[in-house]
Design goal:
Blueprint (H helix, E strand, L loop, with lengths): L1 E2 L4 E2 L17 E2 H11 L5 H14 L2 H6 L1 E3 L8 H5 L10 H6 L4 H20 L3 E5 L25 H16 L1 H6 L1 E6 L4 E8 L2 E8 L6 E6 L4 E4 L7 E2 L5 E6 L4 E7 L11 E5 L16 H12 L4 E3 L33 H5 L6 H9 L1 H17 L24 H30 L3 E6 L8 H5 L14 E5 L9 E6 L3 H6 L3 H13 L2 E4 L7 E6 L8 E4 L3 H11 L4 E3 L7 H10 L3 E4 L17 E4 L8 H8 L5 H13 L5 E5 H4 L24 H30 L1
Parallel strand pairs: 1-5, 3-4, 4-5, 14-15, 14-25, 15-16, 16-19, 19-22, 23-24, 24-25
Antiparallel strand pairs: 1-2, 6-7, 7-8, 8-13, 9-12, 10-13, 11-12, 17-18, 17-20, 20-21
Length: 716
């Protein structure tokens, strides 16, 4: 809820039980006064726990759960002014009341406390209500002095981020925070906590209001396992497993999510693996393909004791060769077909009478027909002309559209047959790999290209204007790597429409991924929690964060497909809500040694329940990173040490890029993000891969020996 002094406007639908609430359950001023006194150290955690318990016991349950939890209001001092330890209003005259602003130290304290306040507000019972301007960082005393200097156009981004992250935590498990039981308690004078429980779901929220005291807080376990989604660290379990402990710094917070070990995820077998795209496998100097080149690479991995082969997306690429900006989210890249450019006619000969081909076309018609029509039209209109600029009669997909024009219809069959051959060769490769103990990890981009068959045929689920141009595009705000932000250009999804349709397009897409791969890496996993939407034609600075579907999408998927073999690409800016999403789904995340906060030459500990990576297709190679980070060290020695640390880490799965196995520098990079040209072209040769096999085999022996030793030690 959002209060603007005269009326209430809801975010989303009004909760139905607001209409039947008792009047005294609507404006929860006791929450405001108790919370702010606790956060400004005027009362203890015991006092606020007792006060919240009294309210919970004496209010009708429904009134308590639907009352508006206010921290800011038009007839009270601004939240930041209170949290910044401003002077009492009676100590100031009228002019001072009007002009007072927190100094730099007071403002910093206020913003630090605001995170604690917002997190508690969003996770406590009741409907959180934000008074307009609080999210922008406004200050001021009691009305009329609480209107401050309006900051619109110059909002405090720290305050906005605080509220967005706190709201995102609430949205992730909104059921338990809206309707769950409430058990407040005090761990000591400084630390206030409470449990929220609904059915089998339990969350414990902890906050330390002290400005100088740190505390280790121990609470009983209420599940098989627990994650701290704010701090991002595993709580320490007691020897008997009956309790867990977290460390809270001054003004520290913790949200403990108790859960079963198995949630929505399909667990991964312990093992090693290699990242190498199909185009990079040895093929006589040419780009790698399916068929014999890829099967020979599988043999190398199998003989070297590997368990996983991770590839990049296999969909058709854009003009720069990027598999992350393709023409279809469902189709296969025909250039990966063995023999596509040399003897395609022989590969497709006699397919018109092949019952397997007919069955393939019927089973995949929902994506196949739009795709082949799209490709056929492009060949006539021009590959470089995006579909919104096509002749008007071709801009809207409809079944049979390609058959309406003879020149277009003639080309659809070629693309249809190419997809069948791709599918056949891919299935043969996957079966060949599985028979030899190799599981294939695929990769699914979050977004699709604006000029793709998906957007052309499914316009209503993408953010487009009436002409078909992106109305909202994906990107990211300014950060240390891009001071002006980034504009990726992909249209964002209309998640409201998709939700109404029970995510039907996404279910078809995920089903396709599960047909192709044993495990699927979900690129840009952050986007399922929150996505950055930039108005079409505007700069990245004009974008804004919006909430994604969260766990709801994956719950729908699990109901349909069973436990999900997904990996979350959770790199980059990780918020508490993203950690929460990873924890609720159980999907393993990624821990790249190059992104570790510590000096990895002294030691390396990947985060729990993550896959350890030596590098990815988007990073420097391990050797290249070592040389750039420690130019005066012995690069080969450091490389050996870091490989050992990856393999000996606590991660169940360790993945190395083929370039890292070969000890190659940055000249062998697969991709440099933000650079369109000269990417996606690196290829290995047979001699180097044979050397890699021998090295991988030795690594696998050590890896398995270390794992056996670790398991024996754990058993003891």
């Amino acid at each position: 809820m959002w209060e603007d002094a005269s009326h209430k406007v809801s975010y989303g639908e009004l909760r139905k039980y607001l209409q039947g609430s008792e009047l005294d359950g609507v404006m929860n001023y006791p929450f405001r006064s108790s919370m702010l006194r606790y956060l400004t150290n005027k009362t203890t955690a015991h006092d606020i726990a007792r006060r919240m318990q009294e309210l919970y016991e004496n209010y009708p349950r429904e009134a308590f759960l639907c009352g508006l939890n206010l921290l800011g209001s038009h007839d009270r001092r601004r939240v930041l002014t209170v949290l910044g330890n401003a002077p009492d209003r009676h100590a100031l005259n009228e002019e001072q009341l009007r002009d007072f602003r927190l100094n730099e130290g007071q403002r910093s304290l206020a913003v630090s406390r605001l995170w604690v306040a917002a997190l508690l507000q969003m996770t406590m019972p009741g409907v959180p209500c934000i008074y307009y301007g609080d999210e922008a960082g406004m200050e001021g005393y009691t009305d009329p002095y609480n209107r401050g200097t309006y900051p619109w156009g110059n909002e405090d981004q720290n305050c906005r981020t605080i509220y967005r992250n706190a709201i995102a935590v609430r949205k992730l498990l909104h059921e338990v925070f809206e309707d769950g039981d409430f058990e407040p308690f005090a761990a000591n004078d400084d630390v206030f906590g409470f449990y929220r429980t609904l059915g089998d779901t339990t969350v414990c929220v902890l906050a330390n209001a002290s400005l100088k005291n740190s505390h280790v807080v121990t609470v009983p376990m209420r599940g098989e396992s627990v994650d701290d989604v704010v701090q991002g660290k595993k709580p320490t379990l007691s020897e008997d497993g009956g309790s867990c402990s977290v460390h809270l710094w001054p003004l520290g917070t913790s949200v403990l999510y108790f859960h079963d070990n198995e949630r929505l995820q399909l667990p991964m077998e312990r093992g090693m693996g290699v990242i190498c795209h199909i185009t990079s496998v040895p093929n006589g100097g040419k780009a790698g393909t399916l068929g014999e080149p890829s099967k020979r690479f599988v043999d190398v991995l199998a003989k070297a004791g590997q368990t996983y082969w991770q590839v990049l997306p296999v969909n058709p690429t854009d003009q720069f060769g990027s598999p992350y900006a393709g023409l279809s989210a469902f189709a296969g890249n025909p250039y990966l077909i063995e023999g596509f450019q040399d003897n395609f006619d022989e590969l497709v000969e006699g397919l018109e009478d092949d019952p397997e081909y007919k069955e393939f076309c019927e089973r995949n018609a929902d994506w196949l027909e739009p795709y082949v029509s799209f490709r056929a039209i492009k060949e006539v209109v021009g590959d470089d002309i995006p579909w919104p600029l096509w002749p008007e009669n071709l801009r809207t997909y409809r079944p049979g559209i390609a058959e309406e024009e003879q020149t277009i219809a003639a080309n659809t069959e070629t693309h249809r047959r190419a997809q069948f051959i791709f599918e056949k060769q891919w299935n043969e490769l996957r079966a060949y790999a599985n028979e030899r103990g190799i599981k294939i990890i695929g990769d699914m981009p979050m977004y699709v290209s604006a000029d793709s068959s998906d957007v052309w045929a499914e316009r209503e689920i993408f953010s487009l204007d009436e002409a078909g141009n992106p109305e909202g595009v994906a990107g990211c705000p300014p950060d240390n790597f891009a001071k002006d932000g980034q504009i990726w250009g992909n249209p964002t999804f209309r998640w409201d429409v998709l939700r109404e349709r029970n995510y039907d397009w996404w279910m078809r897409r995920l089903e396709r991924m599960l047909e192709l791969y044993d495990y699927v890496r979900l690129d840009h996993f952050l986007g399922f929690s929150s996505y950055y939407n930039i108005p079409g034609g505007r700069g990245a600075l004009e974008g804004a964060w919006n909430f994604g579907p969260g766990v709801e999408l994956f719950r729908v998927a699990q109901e349909r497909f069973g436990n999900l073999p997904f990996i979350g690409e959770d790199l980059g800016t990780i918020t508490p809500a993203v950690r929460f999403l990873v924890s609720v789904t159980g999907f393993p995340g990624m821990d790249v040694i190059q992104f570790a906060n510590e000096d990895v030459r002294q030691g390396y500990t990947p985060a729990p329940e993550k896959i350890c990576y030596s590098s990815t297709h988007d990073t420097q190679t391990l050797v290249g990173w070592i040389k750039s980070k420690w130019p005066y060290d012995d690069a080969e020695k450091v490389y050996r040490e870091l490989v050992d640390r990856c393999l000996r880490s606590s991660a169940d799965v360790t993945i190395m890029s083929l370039q890292d196995v070969l000890e190659l520098d940055d000249s062998a990079r697969m991709n440099v993000p933000g650079v369109a040209e000269n990417n996606w072209s690196w290829k290995a040769d047979d001699a180097s891969v044979e050397a890699a096999r021998q090295y991988l085999a030795s690594l696998a022996r050590d890896y398995n020996r270390w794992r056996i030793d670790d398991e024996s030690q754990e058993a003891k």
